[in-house]
TrEMBL record:
<feature type="binding site">
    <location>
        <position position="334"/>
    </location>
    <ligand>
        <name>ATP</name>
    </ligand>
</feature>
<comment type="function">
    <text>Molecular chaperone. Has ATPase activity.</text>
</comment>
<feature type="binding site">
    <location>
        <begin position="122"/>
        <end position="127"/>
    </location>
    <ligand>
        <name>ATP</name>
    </ligand>
</feature>
<dbReference type="InterPro" id="IPR001404">
    <property type="entry name" value="Hsp90_fam"/>
</dbReference>
<comment type="similarity">
    <text>Belongs to the heat shock protein 90 family.</text>
</comment>
<dbReference type="InterPro" id="IPR036890">
    <property type="entry name" value="HATPase_C_sf"/>
</dbReference>
<feature type="binding site">
    <location>
        <position position="93"/>
    </location>
    <ligand>
        <name>ATP</name>
    </ligand>
</feature>
<feature type="binding site">
    <location>
        <position position="99"/>
    </location>
    <ligand>
        <name>ATP</name>
    </ligand>
</feature>
<dbReference type="GO" id="GO:0051082">
    <property type="term" value="F:unfolded protein binding"/>
</dbReference>
<keyword id="KW-0143">Chaperone</keyword>
<dbReference type="InterPro" id="IPR037196">
    <property type="entry name" value="HSP90_C"/>
</dbReference>
<keyword id="KW-0175">Coiled coil</keyword>
<feature type="binding site">
    <location>
        <position position="34"/>
    </location>
    <ligand>
        <name>ATP</name>
    </ligand>
</feature>
<feature type="binding site">
    <location>
        <begin position="100"/>
        <end position="101"/>
    </location>
    <ligand>
        <name>ATP</name>
    </ligand>
</feature>
<feature type="binding site">
    <location>
        <position position="85"/>
    </location>
    <ligand>
        <name>ATP</name>
    </ligand>
</feature>
<dbReference type="Pfam" id="PF13589">
    <property type="entry name" value="HATPase_c_3"/>
</dbReference>
<feature type="binding site">
    <location>
        <position position="80"/>
    </location>
    <ligand>
        <name>ATP</name>
    </ligand>
</feature>
């Protein structure tokens, strides 16, 4: 139909729109970043599809994003010759919010404006930012390969309704016309547009052009205003730290700088480039099971997919970045990635790189504590998931201990070993569910008295992790809540005291055994306690008391 059809935004969309416009008001210019990013995505998609269907080019292979200012009618036009949208797609993509839970998140969390800015792209609400600066928006689009009469017009004032109509559109791709609000007239200045493009979109791999009057030739020309080369393809020496940081921010929509990164071009049998970042803040949904992670995958500079999880183990899922491979096939799918041998070797290599990067980072205590506070819990999955790299992962773990107070820096296993007592054979730890119950545990009395440090493990995952930690540099781990000879041995005058356990104590032990009968395995005398008269403990081969508690609370 060539008739104008009117639709209503999904009710959620309306609210998001409202929230967005208000929370992003102070940072209006990001609408351009969002539009350029969509245009660049659309061109990437086109490139990808033309691999199998070259006819989609329609003899128009000069892929670019164009910006045109029209001061006479206060419009800013952004067009691309990417894949475009069909009638159905335009309704689905611009009329609904695909990601559920977005609204709840924005409302319940008391985010600062800056935090909200950084979230905008994560939710696929990027396009709506046009309404921060526009009183009306027209989107004309035609999907690559469709008849010129199969174009579609989408029109809205961003107030609950939008209209859609079939139109004739000569060129493939999307053309977006913004009717700027009176307070957004500064976006009609080409110097301002150039500044914004340079700030956010300089490394978008597609040329971005602006229509300008050229003084020399006295004609209007399309002038390219971005570098249009992917950052990771440049020589390291030509890239400034700020370039890396900006690239990271654009890639992740995180407004914080990354803590560190690694950029490597590897040649040989496998040829690839990686640019991997460690964020300084964990994503709000990193613990959500649906959390999307993984690298952005390119094959020979062509964008293939986001969230390629296959290149890093789960316990490094906080890593962000890109991998650009020269060896993988262009038509690689997630299923293929899963099976592919190349990918498996890449995963090993990338894992080593990241662990090395973290090892370097750990030399800077302050940065590393920051890293640990954000991602330590995730890294703790490492010993179980990646036995091959257990040693290096163990070195990266950090612990609280009797001798570190809450405010002090955490210690590494190396620190612990360096401070061991002469007679001490093992690395002692306790697992509980809070710092308070750990530090006050009667199990620690003896150790405090003897000035022997004990690691205090209070995260849920610790108990499980310790099952995979057998030893570190030849010292085995020992839970202090389990009976262990090494602990009794630490007592200086064990021998003498052993003799002194007179018949009375034996009588008492027997009496207790008699009363508790089947409920216990044994009752023993211990040197471990100094103030508490008795303690429940488990045998060295049994689960710890904390594990037993976890099981019983799970109804087992
Ligand atoms: P996101 O880019 O995160 O998916 P947006 O709100 O920016 O969210 O865009 C929504 C969707 O609209 C995109 O995923 C894409 O499918 C479609 N879209 C937006 N702009 C374009 C464009 N220039 N060409 C083709 N499709 C587009
Ligand atoms: Mg977008």
């Amino acid at each position: 139909t060539n008739i104008m059809e009117t639709y209503e935004f999904q009710s959620e969309t309306n609210e998001i729109l409202h929230l967005m416009i208000h929370s992003l008001y102070s940072n209006k210019e990001i609408f351009l970043r969002e539009l350029v990013s969509n245009a660049s995505d659309a061109i990437d998609k086109l490139k990808f599809q033309t691999i199998s269907s070259p006819e989609l080019y329609e003899n128009n292979t000069n892929l670019c994003i164009r910006i045109r200012i029209n001061k006479d009618n206060n419009t800013l036009i952004i067009s691309d010759n990417g894949i475009g949208m069909t009638h159905k797609e335009i309704i689905n993509n611009l009329g609904t919010i695909a990601k559920s839970g977005t609204k709840e998140f924005l409302q319940t969390y008391n985010k600062t404006t800056q935090e909200k800015n950084s979230l905008i792209g994560q939710f696929g609400v990027g396009f709506y930012s046009v309404f921060i600066v526009s009183k009306k928006v027209l989107v004309k689009s035609r999907f690559g390969g469709l008849d010129k009469n199969e174009g579609v017009l989408w029109e809205s004032e961003g107030k609950g309704k939008y209209q859609v109509k079939k139109i004739f559109k000569k060129n493939r791709g999307t053309k977006i016309t913004l009717y700027l609000k009176s307070e957004a007239q500064n976006f009609l200045e080409s110097w301002n547009i150039k500044r914004i493009v340079n700030k956010y979109s300089n490394h978008v791999a597609i040329p971005i052009e602006i229509y300008t009057y050229d003084e020399k030739t006295k004609t209007s020309i399309w002038e390219q205003i971005n570098q249009a080369q992917a950052l990771w393809t440049l020589e390291k020496s030509k890239i400034k730290d700020d370039d890396y940081k900006n690239f990271y921010k654009k890639l992740t929509n995180d407004s914080n700088d990354p803590i560190t990164w690694t950029h490597n071009k590897v040649e040989g049998v496998q040829e690839y480039t990686i640019l991997l970042f460690i964020p300084s803040k964990s994503a709000w949904d990193i613990w959500n099971r649906e959390n999307k992670h993984g690298l952005k995958l390119y094959v020979k500079r062509i964008y293939i997919m986001d969230n390629a999880e296959q290149f890093l183990p789960n316990y490094l899922r906080f890593v962000k970045g890109i991998i650009d491979s020269n060896n993988l096939p262009l038509n690689v799918s997630r299923e293929i990635l899963q099976e592919n041998e190349l990918v498996k070797t890449l995963k090993k290599a990338l894992t080593k790189r990241i662990l090395k990067l973290l090892e370097n980072l750990s030399k800077n205590t302050e940065s590393y504590q920051l890293f640990w506070s954000q991602f330590g819990l995730i890294l703790k999955e490492g010993p179980a998931e990646d036995p091959e790299n257990k040693i290096i992962i163990s070195n990266l773990l950090r612990f609280r201990s009797i001798k570190t107070t809450l405010s002090e820096n955490l210690i590494s296993l190396q620190n612990y070993i360096d401070n061991m007592q002469k007679k001490q054979e093992k690395i002692y730890y306790i697992t509980t569910d809070s710092y308070a119950s750990a530090i006050n545990s009667p199990h620690l009395e003896f150790f405090k008295q003897k000035n022997i440090d004990v690691l205090l493990l209070t995260d849920k995952i610790d108990e499980w992790m310790m099952n995979y930690m057998t030893d570190f540099k030849g010292k085995s781990f020992q839970s202090v809540s389990k009976y262990d000879k090494s602990i009794e041995k630490l007592n200086n005058n064990v021998q003498d005291q052993e003799k002194n356990i007179n018949e009375n104590v034996k009588l008492l032990l027997n009496k207790v055994k008699e009363i508790l009968k089947d409920k216990i395995k044994d009752v023993r005398f211990t040197h471990k306690l100094t103030q508490t008269p008795a303690i429940v403990t488990t045998d060295s081969n049994d689960m710890t008391t904390q594990m037993a508690k976890l099981f019983s609370s799970a109804g087992q």
